[in-house]
Amino acid sequence: MSAEETTEDSxxxxxxxKKRVALSSxxxxxxxxxxxxxxxxxxxSLGILSEAAHSALDLVAAVVTYLAIRVSGRPADxxxxxGHGKFENLSALFETLLLVLTCFWIAWEAVERxxxxxxHVDVNAWSFLVIALSISIxxxxxxxxxxxxxxxxxxxxxxxxxxxxxxxxxxxxxxxxLVGVLISHRFERLAFLVKADALAALGVALIVLKVCYxxxxxxxxxxxxxxxxxxxxxxxxxxxxxxxxxxxxxxLRRSGPEVFADVTLAVGHGVAFEAAHDIADRAESAIQAAxxxxxxxxxxxxxxxxxxxxxxxxxxxxxxxxxxxxxVRIYDEEGRRSxxxxxxxxxxxxxxxxxxxxxxxEKALREAVPGLAGVVTHIEPAxxxxxxxxxxxxxxxxxxxxxxxxxxxxxxxxHLHEIQARLAGGxxxxxxxxxxxxxxxxxxAHDISERIEKHLRAQVPFVGRxxxxxxxVE
Length: 474
Known about the structure:
Layout: H1 3-43, H2 46-72, H3 86-115, H4 125-152, H5 155-186, H6 196-223, H7 231-238, E1 246-255, E2 258-268, H8 273-290, E3 295-303, H9 310-320, E4 324-333, E5 336-345, H10 351-368, E6 372-381, E7 392-393, H11 397-410, E8 415-424, E9 427-436, H12 442-459, E10 463-472
Parallel strand pairs: 2-3, 5-6, 9-10
Antiparallel strand pairs: 1-2, 4-5, 7-8, 8-9
Helix pairs in contact: 1-2, 1-4, 2-3, 2-5, 2-6, 3-5, 3-6, 4-5, 5-6, 7-8, 9-10, 11-12
């Protein structure tokens, strides 16, 4: 099974579980709304009727949440490049507005009953039964919603879970109000408790208003791409993998359960393209480990390191100008520094074009390394056109005799092997392996290979290219 098929199966399973828990919330809201309306009208309890209105809006909110879950599960398309996750944020905001309207209605009715209108409340077993049923159902569905919301980072389900968890407290307030009314009917001295039902309804309104503030603020923040506290720092710290010199910019936005991160990293000037890409991959993996399922885009920029030496600057600057630099020599003469180097240019350039590019490079090098007394560049073709040559085998006898003579004269403990000679381009092309002690300094090994090359050119006619591979003795 391909990675894309696995991802699609995972997405389908996620959407199925989210829809299932949202649909169960709709069913619970229908049951509670019908039961509370029936008992509230029978007993004339404003507390229960306020709970019925609350549950009716819960039903609307649950339906909106279910529809939002269905839409938000769709993948990104041409018109919604970041997916459809914002529908969950809109759903949560819609729930908030409905709850605010509920609060105003409940508060209005409560104040009217407290100060202007006196209504008899008939408290019976059904009153307590419907509230107890409401508390048990709200407890069950709020836990189910919270579990799935945390599992898939769904803000619509999180809003529903928070909504229904507060229903438990508001139901408890109504329950206390009913107890107060019941006591007022039994004991004349406590007749003032007849207002407890209206006070309970007012308490419900205050609780719901607090929930409205929490839900509304979070929904608006997400719609306006506000960054959750600490998330930016988490991403920035995760991005500091080996090879990253600085995290220059972190941009974050949330779309429903998904987090999109655009991160700009600085790496050393001398880091090769493949290595920079590997650093970006490791940073992306680290961010996704810190923020699961985040959609991460990494942009890498070069940055000069504090300890970057003149040699590194020279090579980096040559690469920026599309040139190759080798055989770089830096001379310090009585406090004055100068540079000589070989500069590789394209084979297809004319002399005036190649010289112009060399001049541009030299000017840039003087600016990058202040105080240079002089810069001398030797222009040479990069050799791309001569990379493929027709060759014929040539005898190695003369080459081997010259090498044995070199070893006898120099008395170097080197083992020369895999000697090859071929004719190409009218010249003798020679390659060989030179095995030395593994503790030999690389500069000393290079000097030995240069001396072997000079000896071959002096001893064997028509020697052209010489390639010597140095290696430690096995």
